Amino acid sequence: MPPKPEAPKVTNRYYQRTAGTARPCFICFRESTTVLSTFNTTDFLYVCPGHLLDRGFATLLTPPSAPPSPASSGPSKEEIAKVIADYERKKSKGKDKDEDKKDKKEEPASAPFLTPSVPAAPPPPSHPVYELHRDYWALRQSEMKKRDNLVKAKAVSKDLPRVPASAFGAIVRPRPGPDGGGIV
Ligand SMILES: [Zn+2]
User: Fold this and answer.
1) 17 bridge partner residues
2) What is the pLDDT of residue 55?
3) How many angstroms does the Cα of residue 23 sit away from the middle of ligand 1?
4) Torsions phi, psi of 164, nearest 5?
5) Kind of pairing, strands 14-24 and 44-46?
6) How does pLDDT run across 93-118, given as a tens digit for each residue?
7) 12, 34, 56, 123: which could join 73 in a potential S-S bond, CB 3.0 to 4.6 Å?
């Protein structure tokens, strides 16, 4: 058997994503919105949270929650809270000191840290990467191959001349003569 040169180039690396609609788990058919998909979504499969943690099914390659690097994203919620707390503290301190003289002047103090109320969007969590157990990986590969063959077959059948439907009917139905007069 000659080796198949056009085997899909997919590696056993599945990224965890969340789908909008739940579909049955690949293993137990329990509805789940968790999807494992290859990098270019050549292959994907739904899996329930329980089976995601099943070492007999897949192994997590990356830590699920790497601490977000402060450099990449804006200030975190905690940082903002800290800044606000700092500000409030300074404000009240100043107030204590100057209370006797000009406490009225403190009134219009605007909180510059509060005005930009843009929520610090959490950085998109880097997708955890899983490696399927080799049995399941083999299964997925054969699935992919099957799918690939199906696509190829479809493409080929498109190129073939279409068999006219009447060709089948001709066997059963007697054809009328060329002038419609029927058979002699
Ligand atoms: Zn499951």
Assistant:
1) 35
2) 94
3) 11
4) -65, 140
5) unpaired
6) 765 555 555 555 555 555 555 445 55
7) 123
Nearest by Cα to 46 from 77, 62, 70, 25: 25
Six-digit token string for 114: 């509060």
Domain spans of the chain, in order of start: 14-66+126-172, 67-124
The answer to whether the beta carbons of residues 130 and 60 sit under 8 Å apart is yes
Alpha carbon of 41 to ligand 1 centroid (Å)? 20
Task: Count CA atoms within 13 Å of residue 12 on its CB side.
Answer: 17
What one-letter code names the amino acid at 26?
A: F
The tokens for 95 are 């107030």
- What are the pLDDT digits (tens) for 62-91? 765 555 555 555 667 788 788 888 888 888
CA–centroid distance, residue 50 to ligand 1 (Å): 6
- Give the integer Cα–Cα distance in Å for 108 and 103: 11
Average pLDDT in the 141-165 region?
A: 86
Q: Measuring CA to CA, how many Å separate 47 from each of 19, 24, 34, 146?
A: 11, 7, 6, 21
Report how far residue 35's alpha carbon sits from residue 16's, in angstroms, rounded to the nearest whole number.
6
For residue 20, what are its two tokens? 């909008």
Q: What is the 3-state secondary structure (H, E, C) of 150-167?
A: HHHHHHHHHHCCCCCCHH
Share of the chain above pLDDT 90, in %: 41
